Amino acid sequence: MTLEQMKSLNGAAQLEITVDNLLHRCGLPAAIVDHGPADGAKQRLNWRGADMSLSALDWDIAYGTRQRQPGKGWVNGGQLDHRCTSGLAQLLLHAKGHVGVLSVAKKAQGFGYATTYKEPKNLYQAHKVIGVTAKLTSSLSVSALVGRYGQPDEVVKQPGNRDKFRYWVLTLRDRRPESLHAVDFEIDNATTASYAISTSGMDFIQQRLDTLLRQWERDYVLD
Question: How far, in Å, CA of 131 to CA of 205, rounded?
């Protein structure tokens, strides 16, 4: 699978953006599931009249179908926004908390640069989308999937008779690994009705990227 093919998948455009930008692009979601402890610290938030009380830890943000009240989080009781779910039955975005902004500025006096990392106080700005899971409105056969993207790089066995077709999408800059994504299609009875895209914000992606970087250093730097 090429980078362009991955980017053409619905939901891919929302990767690596803050939840603040997500809400501007896609409107209020159907629900936000909060992965912080039930008795943990919460921040009062408001988005265009919608009051929420959420933690600084990870969130799952659902668009598409109306949601039941989650154990922790917020549910939209008003009108749902479908501008980012064209062709999908549901779009679930995984947002990582405690995400700051790295700034590099030249020192006022002398040589060198000063690097600062600041986490925004607003939780919408301190959460970044690191993965998406999309449910299709209609299923796709395995033959059509392979015809479109080629054979998967890996087949990951799942419980029962299900499999996961995994495509790795690697970008290089001067032969150096720059970014890595995994695109997983859930296969059941020779069809797929959902896929997930993961960024290096996910641990298993970052670990593989680190391995590729070490290999690049051995091949091109240490020789």
Answer: 11
Q: Which residues pair with 51 in a beta bridge?
A: 46
Cα 220-174-206 angle, rounded to 5 deg: 80
Amino acid at 142: V
Read out DSSP for 60-108?
A: EEEESS--PPPSSEEE--S----TT-TTEEEEEEEEESS--EEEEEE-S
N residues, the chain: 223
Backbone angles phi, psi at 152, to 5 degrees: -65, 155
CA-based R_g, the chain, Å: 20
Give the whole-angstrom CA distance, residue 21 versus residue 33: 18
- 18 secondary structure, DSSP code: B
Segment 87-125, tens digit of pLDDT:
899 999 999 999 998 777 777 776 777 788 889 999 999
Q: Residue 133 carries which side chain, given as an amino acid letter? A: T
CB atoms within 10 A of CB 10: 16
d(CA 12, CA 197): 7
Q: String of b and e for 123-154 (b: at least 16 CB within 10 Å)?
A: bbbbbbbbbbbbbbeeebebeebeeebeebee
pLDDT in tens, 186-205: 999 999 999 999 999 999 99
